[in-house]
Write a structure and sequence with these properties.
This is Putative membrane protein. The chain is an all-alpha fold and 146 residues long. The protein has one domain. The chain is built from four helices and no strands.
Length: 146
């Protein structure tokens, strides 16, 4: 049966390589989703700023005052913009990590010694939970202000 064993070995390695590739692609999908969500969160801050500007302009027009001073009082960077940029940065960092993990995984499969990396899963989950919690707090704060 040595011939039968030799036939299975390349297929087993191929399956491991393909599983490593699927894992890489799932990390890329997660990164793209995180970047997209970060963009939406950052643009939400811009929407709130513009909405605030429209409301203030109407108040100023009602008082027959100049709106230039009011525009200068608006904050330039809102919390959602900062949070969105941080989420985008996390997505980009995750792309680089996933590429490194993919390459390391291929080397480990070739050498016959593969050790799963659990720390990134825990770190990613904790960071996403923190960003999600911060977004919830921000949205609650904004809704209470309006």
């Amino acid at each position: 049966m040595p011939d039968d064993e030799n036939r299975r070995r390349p297929i087993d390695l191929a399956q491991q390589y393909l599983a490593n590739e699927r894992t890489f692609l799932s990390w890329l999908r997660t990164s793209i989703a995180l970047i997209g969500l970060g963009f939406v969160v950052a643009r939400f801050g811009l929407f709130l700023r513009e909405f605030q500007l429209v409301v203030i302009q109407r108040e100023v027009e009602a008082a027959a005052s100049s709106s230039n001073n009011v525009i200068q009082q608006l904050p330039e960077h809102s919390f959602s913009s900062i949070l969105g940029v941080l989420m985008i940065a996390l997505g980009v960092a995750l792309i680089f990590y996933s590429l490194k993990s993919y390459r390391d995984g291929n080397k480990e499969i070739e050498s016959g010694v593969y050790v799963p990396k659990k720390s990134v899963v825990y770190t990613g989950a904790i960071l996403l939970a923190i960003f999600g919690g911060a977004t919830i707090l921000y949205l609650l704060t904004v809704s209470l202000m309006m």
